[in-house]
Amino acid sequence: MKLVLICAGGLSTSWIVRKMKDYAREHNLDLDVQACGLADYEDPASGADLVLLGPQIGYYQKEISQRLNRPITVIDSADYALANIETILKKAAETLVIQNSMRF
Fold it and tell me: Model pTM?
């Protein structure tokens, strides 16, 4: 699964990305994940299976979704603050299942 995390500048999501990579390695998951900021998200996110937004920019969800035309969701603020990686990844997987079931 390829995930791109977007936040205002890409810095706070870098910490989440590091934790996701550690989690994936520990649980033998096939996960490609990277962080970027609002100023440079289009290229990295163009090939993502799912785009995750930091809660501080959740209000950009509609705009970014229209630009990228791909699944996008906002990370819950509590999960983000606590770096609850397992819950974040479960919600990401659930979003993909829902999005894929809606395709005709």
Answer: 0.90
